[in-house]
Write a structure and sequence with these properties.
Elements lengths: L2 E6 L6 H11 L4 E7 L1 H8 L8 H9 L6 E5 L5 H7 L3 E5 L9 H10 L2 E5 L7 H16 L3
Parallel strand pairs: 1-2, 1-4, 2-3, 4-5
Helix pairs in contact: 4-5
């Protein structure tokens, strides 16, 4: 069985997430999605994020047909999870800069022979943009009362 792994915060799921996960699943037999814990997500996304707790984000991702398993990781990067899962492939969105991979993740991939694949096509959507638009809608709605 060929195991593929993706990771991310997945706060405010959007079509870009779905395209990456669907393309990642096509690379193997099993897709495992590692989701940043709330603390890890706040570190990467900033104050006020994530908007949804990790357990809810995991439940949403797990409901996608292309996803076989979901786990939540506490660390700031996914290196330890890579060591535990030992996937054949680690898939990232095509907007991801391979030179920006944290050293610990690169080290884990090299040490375990994990192949990095960029999938999902050009970047479409962003949780940050959705959050900003939602905030504007809420603010606009407050003025209508």
């Amino acid at each position: 069985m060929r195991v593929v792994m993706c990771n991310g915060v997945f706060d405010l799921l959007h079509v870009g997430h779905v395209r990456v996960l669907t393309a990642a699943r096509a690379l193997g037999d099993i897709l495992v999605v590692a989701i940043n814990s709330d603390t890890s997500a706040t570190h990467h996304k900033g104050p006020g994020r994530p908007l949804q707790p990790a357990q809810e984000r995991a439940e949403i991702i797990c409901a996608l047909e292309c996803v076989d398993h979901v786990c939540i990781f506490e660390e700031l990067d996914v290196a330890e999870t890579m060591r535990q899962l030992k996937p054949e492939i680690h898939a990232k969105g095509e907007d991801y800069d391979p030179t920006g991979i944290p050293a610990s993740e690169s080290s884990a991939a090299n040490e375990l022979g994990i192949e990095l694949k960029l999938v999902g096509g050009p970047k479409v959507g962003a949780s940050r943009e959705l959050a900003t638009r939602l905030s504007a809608v809420v603010e606009d709605g407050k003025g209508r009362k």
